[in-house]
Structures are given as structure tokens and as C-alpha cells.
Amino acid sequence: MNASNNKRNAHSTKLRRSLRSLCAGLLLLCSATHAEEWMETVNEAGGKILFLNSLCTGSTTGRMVIATMRDGGTIHGCWYFFADMVHVVWIGQNGKTSAYDPRTLTYRRGE
Question: Total structural domains in the chain?
Fold first, then answer.
């Protein structure tokens, strides 16, 4: 039983390192080039959530996030990578937060 737990823990540690490396690599890639680059996912409102590389106003670590709605509206916030998840604090939404698995995000690059 201990061998099984050790294998599971080793796999979990490898997965966390891989996710951390993926997010760090995307941040470095986005900041090292001049073309527009972002990560995105589909949201429940029929739009997209766009994770940008630009810093949030007044923040040294938070990055901008924009959620688009089916009706054309948008919500803004700041995203942070912490504990193997991408966390969002939505601005003007009464303290609403969201968390996303980075494996569900798609890397995009504008022309």
C-alpha cells in the first residue's frame, strides 16, 4: 500500500511541476514577444475568458482578464497563478472569484 501511495504522490508532484512550468513558460513567452498573446477558455455565459499578460492597474503580480458575454457585455478582473490553479478576482462583482485548471486554457497568438 505504501508503494502505491508513493507512486501516486510522485505522479502528483510531477503534475504540479509540469503545470507550474507551463504557466511560467506561457508568461515568459507572452512577455518576451511583441505580438499579442493570451490564453483563453469558453465561459458559461456563451462567451470567452481571455487571460492577458498585461498587469492589472496598481498590481505588481495580477494580470488582466476579460470575460465576454453572448450579449456583447464584458467583465474585467485580475488573474493570478497559485497552488496549481489560475485564480481570478472579478472587479465590480462583489468580491466574486473563480478558479481554472490551467490545462483547460488554450494559448492564442494574434497576427
Answer: 1
